[in-house]
Every structure is written in C-alpha cells, then in structure tokens.
Design a protein that fits this description.
The protein is mainly α. The chain contains 20 helices and no strands. Helix 12 runs parallel beside helix 14.
Length: about 325
C-alpha cells in the first residue's frame, strides 16, 4: 500500500512538472510569435507605429529580435531608424553592441538615431564608439554623440570633448561645455576659458554652470570676466557660480557685484557671500539690510546669520525690530543661538 502511494505521488509530481514545462514552452512560443509579428510589421508603414508600441511593451525580451532586425542588410533605412528608436526606448544595455555597430552605418539617419539611443541607455561600453563620431561630417551625429557622452559621463573622453569646444555648431559647443562640467573636469578649465567671448550667449551661460560645477580656484578669473558679460543671465549665473568656489578671490569679485545697480545681482551676490562665509562680507551685507528691495534685505539677513560672527550678529541686532517680519525672524533666530 505504501509503495503504491509513493508511486502515485511521484507520478503526480512528474505530471505537474511536465505540464509546467509544456506551459512554459508554450508561453515562450506565444511571446516569440508575438514579437516576430511586430518585427515583420516594422517594414509596413500602416502598422509600424503599433508594432513599435508592442515591442517597447515587450521590453528586454524584444531586444535580441530588434537588434537582429536592425543589423539585417535587407532592412530598409526607415525601419532601421525605427528599430534603433525602439531599442533606445526599451533602454536595455543588451542592445549596446548592436547599436555600436549601427553607429558606424553609412546611413546618416541611422547614425543620428544610434548616438541618441546609446545616450539613453547610458552604457559605458559605447564611450569609444561615440568618441569617434565627434568628427562625423554630419552636425546632428556630432551633437547627439556629445549629448550621449554627457549622459554617460565617462571622464576618459574629456580630452576629446575639449577639442569639440571649437566646433562651428554652437549647440555642439554648448553640450561639450555641459559634459565637461558634469565630469567636473578640472584640466578643462583653460580650454573652457576661451569661450568667454563665444558669440552664442547660451554657450556662455552654460559655461557659468560648468565652472560652478568644477569649482576650482582656476575658475575664478574666468567667472570674473563673465560677471561683466553683456547678457544679464550670464552675469547673474556667474555670480551664483562664484558662491560655489570658497576662496578670497571669489569674495573680492562678489564684494563688487554686491553693489550693483541690478537688484538681482545684489540678491545673488548676497547669497553667494553667505555661502562663502567670510567675515569681510559683513559690512556690505549690513548695508543691504536697508536695500530698497525686500528680497535683497531678506537674503542679506540670511547670509549674516550663516556667517554668524560677532560682527554679523551686531549687524542683525540692528534689524531685530525690522518692518519686514521675515528679516525680524531671521535676526531673532540668529541672536538666540
């Protein structure tokens, strides 16, 4: 009786196992058929976008199929671009090698899309291939490659990005500046300094962000020039960037900009002086406590509270009963400590 029960249980177990294997194989076959149907529809204009949605929905499972389709010599140019875009949307690193191969395509549109997709995926394996495309004859390929390298953030290409700072296309120069800032590439400051007279104000604005991110003492003379830029936004962000570089040289520039006739320049200078935290800023900040602009007065009080020396506290005592409640509260909190 016991042996029969054991045999029965074993048979039941094997039956369940067989069923599960068969079900899994059946499910895999269904998925395979569904993906292949979508792949076939990529060449049909009427169904291509629905096929794209279906393949993106399949996610990682669809990647090998889409890569195979992409690298097939018989695939049309438009379908290849669509396949590249699908791989970028899925965002799985398994597609990297296939996209690297597509990045070397003779088809400009495929190269453009491949560079963009590799940036979305962010796999460092694509770094060297993208680096080679920085000299592509097509400006959009170069632009998408710089953007992708910025997204990947691999500092090994920083020296190559320095050369791109001289590109004729201002958008490419802008993203090269951004990438060097993202990488905090200190050795790039000298090359970046040559862009203070760039004809494009957006490039100069991006330069202030990059220098504020790198934030070394070498950045200060470059920012000193940018605080006098003809474009107001550039001037203001140069002031903000100086607040990230804690040195007396930064403070010297800010002690001048804090007296600007531009209320926004005074506002950001006051914040930056507070971030630096040097006692020499107390006098100019105290003067701003009676500024005609309410927001300037508030940030001046906040910066004095940050500096928190006896001189700073003396300055705050003078506004402990200020007409502006925010200024009063800042002063009272600082003096309570």
């Amino acid at each position: 009786m016991m042996k029969k029960a054991v045999v029965l249980v074993l048979a039941l177990f094997l039956a369940v196992l067989f069923f599960e294997i068969s079900f899994a194989q059946g499910s895999a076959s269904i998925v395979d058929a569904r993906i292949r149907r979508c792949i076939n529809e990529l060449e049909q204009k009427k169904y291509a976008q629905n096929a794209r949605i279906g393949l993106v929905g399949e996610g990682k499972r669809a990647v090998p199929y889409v890569v195979e389709f992409l690298l097939n010599p018989g695939t049309s140019s438009s379908a290849k671009v669509l396949a590249v875009n699908i791989l970028g949307e899925i965002g799985d690193p398994e597609a990297t090698e296939g996209l690297i191969e597509a990045l070397a395509s003779d088809d400009t549109k495929v190269r453009r899309a491949s560079a963009k997709a590799l940036g979305r995926i962010g796999d460092k394996r694509a770094t060297q291939a993208l680096k080679q495309r920085l000299n592509d004859y097509d400006a959009t390929v170069r632009l998408n490659s710089v953007k992708a390298l910025d997204e990947i953030g691999d500092p090994s290409v920083a020296e190559s990005l320095k050369l791109v700072l001289k590109d004729v296309n201002p958008n490419i120069r802008l993203y090269a500046v951004r990438a060097l800032g993202t990488m905090k590439y200190k050795e790039g400051v000298a090359a970046l300094s040559e862009l203070t007279d760039d004809q494009d104000a957006n490039v100069r604005l991006e330069l202030t962000y990059a220098l504020g991110s790198i934030a070394t003492k070498d950045c200060v003379p470059v920012l000193a020039k940018l605080v006098n830029d003809p474009h107001r936004n550039v001037r203001l962000h140069a002031i903000i960037a100086l607040g990230n570089i804690k040195c007396k040289e930064s403070q010297s520039i800010l002690l001048e900009t804090v007296n600007s006739g531009d209320k926004e320049a005074r506002y950001y200078s006051a914040i930056a002086l507070g971030d630096l935290g040097y006692n020499e800023a107390v006098g100019p900040l105290k003067k701003l406590l009676t500024d005609e602009n309410t927001n300037v007065r508030i940030v001046a009080a906040e910066s004095l509270a940050k500096i928190n020396t006896s001189e700073a506290k003396d300055a705050l005592r003078s506004v402990s009963n200020d007409e502006i409640s925010r200024v009063r509260n800042i002063a009272k909190m600082a003096l309570r400590d």
